[in-house]
Amino acid sequence: MRTRTGRKWIPTMMVLLSIFGWLAGCTLPGPPPPPATPSPTAPVAAGSQVPLKVGVSTNMPPLIFKQGDQITGLEAELAKGLADYLGRPLQFVEVEWKDQIPYLLDRRTDIIMSGLSITELRKVRIAFSDPYSRTGQMALIRRGDLQRFKMGYYSIVETPSIGAVENTTGALLVRERYEKAKKRFFKTSAEGVEALRNKTIDLMIHDAPVVLVLAAEHESELEPIYSLLTEEYLAWGLRREDGMLLKSVNAYINDMKRDGRLQTVVNRWMPLSGK
């Protein structure tokens, strides 16, 4: 998916920060921590030369995406910091979103970093780190339909056709909440945007950070509805048996919160005016 990293993102990122309050510098309220997990039988020691294999789906700007051949974004920067914290080399493993958890469970990756929201269903299969931010789902519409959706959240209920990216919390929301709508599910957000532009669907629901970036990239055609449809918490996914790694990951996140470095990284990718 084509991405841009210029100042065009700044107005939408300001909205994003004001809506969510990326609470990088403090303890997030919300879901309880995952149940205690047993330590692995053979944990990788800090300072080991065994790479930290991070599973990424690189179509989630500004969280994780590709710029040329380089993987970049908020979570990419945090992944590099985590690898340094652990004293291990970093290896990004590009994985389709639907395969992220299977890759993790098959030990082809050690951790998932791709805008992963904490859900009860996912907690059955994997462990989650402490959340590093709060987010939610948001709708993306055509600019020509602004009047049609002037009631915001309430207008969506009667929408004839809604799209989402498959195997996401957005797709779950569409299935559960919008029974009357014709539903279409896509492999990538780029496919959803194309369907929205050619009027195959009436709106697309996706993670709010992604929606705001997509709106900025297609500002002459598309517009977000500035209200959250859900409240979710972003975290990283690990195997339940990797208790020692989970403990180290949580220590890294909380160290970053305490000294303000996490807020600095967030502001780098989602700049706030006047800060």
Structural overview:
With 275 residues, the protein is of the alpha/beta class. It has 2 domains: 7-38 and 51-134 and 233-269, Periplasmic binding protein-like II (D-Maltodextrin-Binding Protein, domain 2, 3-Layer(aba) Sandwich), CATH 3.40.190; 137-225, D-Maltodextrin-Binding Protein, domain 2 (3-Layer(aba) Sandwich), CATH 3.40.190. The chain has 10 helices and 14 strands. The strands form 3 sheets. Strands 1, 5, 6, 7, 8 and 14 form a 6-stranded mixed β-sheet that branches. It has a 5-stranded mixed β-sheet with strand order 11-10-12-9-13, with helices on both faces. Strand 3 (64-67) and strand 4 form a beta hairpin. The longest helix is centred in the last third of the chain and has 16 residues, at 243-258. The chain starts with 9 loop residues before the first helix and ends in a 6-residue tail after the last helix. Mean pLDDT is 85; it is low at 1-7, 19-30 and 34-41.
Provide a concise account of the structure shown:
This protein is α/β, with parallel strands linked by helices and 275 residues long.
Radius of gyration: 18 Å
Form type? elongated
Average of pLDDT: 85
Q: Regions with pLDDT < 50 over 5+ consecutive residues?
A: 1-7, 19-30, 34-41
H/E element order: HEEEEHEHEHEEEHEHEHEHEEHH
Give the percentage of residues in beta strands.
15-25%
Task: State the CATH architecture of the largest domain.
Answer: 3-Layer(aba) Sandwich
Q: What is the structural class?
A: alpha/beta
